[in-house]
Amino acid sequence: MLYALASAAGISRRWRDVDGLEQVVSDVSLRTILEALGHRAGTQRQVKRSLSYLAAQDTELPALVVADVGKPIAVGRPCNTAVATDRDGCSFALQVVDCVPLAPDVPGYFDFELDGEATRLAVAPPHCPLPARRQWGPSLQIQSLLGARCNAFGDFGELAEAAETFARNGADALAINPVHALFPGNGIGFSPYSPSSRRFLNGALASPALAGLPPLPDNEFAELIDWESAMPQRLAQLRATFGRLPEGLRAHIAEETRGDAALHRHAVFDALDCHYRPRGACGWQDWPTRYRNPESASVARFAAKHSAEVDFHLFVQWLAQASLTEVQRRAAGAGMATGLVADLAVGVDPGGSDAWSLGEDMLRGLTIGAPPDPLGPLGQNWTLTSFSPEGLRRTGYAPWIAMIRAALAHGGGLRIDHAFGLARLWVVPDCADSSEGAYLVYPFADLVRLLALEAHLAGAFIVAEDLGTSPDGFSGAIAQHHM
């Protein structure tokens, strides 16, 4: 029964290593990972109850049904009638063949009724877009760029200069490192691959000059970046810029950011982080208990009491968005066909904004990495977390789709780091060795189709980084979807 529960929860008890040898996950690891996923497995009775819970979930209509254009929609039950409603409010009946509905012949998102029961439907195109012609472009790290002004590290201002320079030399694309949100002003956690959130931007890279504001002051030139001083200094400079904003612009920013609940929650997180990090906190787990639930009354009171600080972090996100939009505009204006090719990190810091704000929709008590292989004989633990497969299904993939849209919002392409994560991730229980982990299966077919749909809507291509031990069927599916 324990093995049946592991299988139902998407944990692979057996897996093949890089040499093709079969490995078996211990019962202790299975129970620990199951408990972290929210499935009690300490006794046979608990295992039985957890199995019943997962079986009941399988009978429910998903929050988002994902299908291919014109193909049968797999809903797990026979149906008599199916109705789709597009974004313009136009409703139409879908053809039903042998009690199975067929998807519309155009890609997109639809409201969906199955025998009167309502849900949502995503219809994917056959594949992702590809560039119309062969292109070339460099890959670069934004922070390493040197521009016309003296800067502690390269930001979107230097990126705009680089884009125009390469465009003049015939480049059509510019591949960049991840620009996800980091912890504000933290000079220790500066890696773009260990972000606080993948749904928002790194405010330290924002360039006021690109948004029509006075430029940041010059910094003394140094050959190496002193992150521990540079990041707090940049945060202080942005605070000074915010303090000098005209009232009209403040009102405009407030209007643009009003109503975006996810953005506001991220700004509240950054305000809390700035409040408690000087006191030794390294993430939300170190905050007072009353602030660890983003929906608590204490968090709401903190946000109201520190509304000016929350407004500042909203401004930083607005400025970063405006800056990166201007970079892409200049790249296109200089002749680049694609412009920026973004980079999507494989996970986020467990103490960061996404892990705090998304709660049980993220993995808790587990971090991701890689099993033992020749590159890392003891295995790897990247000390990152990611979405929970059950959380993805429960939310209709909403936070995952928001992440992909954010990554595609400012360019013509997207590289996905460790794209095997679309199919499976090696998860390691807290305080355990990397070798004590197991592969956790993700809804690969749905994620690939949603990725193709979002790429289609954005008119962008997808690069799937495939370094490592490939899951069965991965390469074929990636090729089929033109990634």
Topology readout:
Elements: H1 2-8, E1 11-12, E2 14-16, E3 22-24, H2 27-36, H3 44-58, E4 64-68, E5 82-85, E6 91-93, E7 96-97, E8 100-101, E9 108-114, E10 117-124, E11 139-140, H4 156-168, E12 173-176, E13 180-181, E14 197-201, H5 227-243, H6 247-257, H7 261-276, H8 297-305, H9 307-333, E15 339-344, H10 353-358, E16 366-370, E17 380-384, H11 389-394, H12 398-408, E18 413-416, E19 424-429, E20 438-441, H13 444-458, E21 461-464, H14 474-480
Parallel strand pairs: 4-10, 11-12, 12-15, 15-18, 18-21
Antiparallel strand pairs: 1-20, 2-3, 5-6, 5-9, 7-8, 9-10, 13-14, 16-17, 16-19, 19-20
Describe the protein's architecture and organization.
The chain is 35% helix and 18% strand. Helix 6 (247-257) packs across helix 9 (307-333) and helix 8 (297-305) crosses helix 9 (307-333). With 483 residues, the protein is α/β, with parallel strands linked by helices. The two termini are 39 Å apart.
Widest sheet: strand ordering: 1-20-19-16-17
**What is the tally of beta strands?**
21
Number of helices: 14
Please indicate the percent range of residues in DSSP E strands (runs of 2 or more): 15-25%
Shape: globular
User: In percent, how helical is the residue content?
Assistant: 25-40%
Poorly predicted runs of 5 or more residues? none
What does the main sheet amount to? 5 strands, antiparallel
CA distance, first residue to last residue: 39 Å
Structural class: alpha/beta
